[in-house]
Design brief:
Length: 118
């Protein structure tokens, strides 16, 4: 049994039960998740592992199964290349913020800069 197989087994269970993709994503990828190793070396090893890729694929599959959003709810979903997703996770970790907080700040800075130019 591999080092991170326990994460994959847990993810398969909730995937098979049809957990909604937001809850699934938060369970396995949010900062502070019990499923993300706490030390940097193990976290990088996990993020480069096949188990991480498989869990991420499950999250993408659950996302595709969700009904379309018909109202603006203050949420967006982005499909990112894995390399970009990984780089953002690493940057958020270095900054000590969640991935959501990092994305919000980057969007706000970008919008603020665009509005100054107009």
């Amino acid at each position: 049994m591999g080092k991170f197989d326990w994460i994959l087994e847990d993810a398969k269970k909730y995937f098979d039960e049809g957990m909604d993709w937001v809850s699934f994503h938060n369970r396995y990828f949010s900062k502070g998740s019990e499923f993300l190793p706490k030390n940097r070396r193990e976290r990088e090893e996990y993020l480069n592992s096949e188990v991480f890729n498989m869990v991420q694929d499950m999250a993408y599959e659950l996302e595709k199964q969700q009904p379309p959003i018909t109202e603006v709810e203050g949420k967006i979903t982005l499909r990112l290349p894995r390399a970009l997703h990984f780089a953002l996770i690493k940057e958020a970790d270095r900054e000590g913020v969640s991935l959501n907080q990092l994305a919000l700040s980057k969007l706000a800075i970008s919008l603020n800069s665009a509005n100054k130019i107009s």
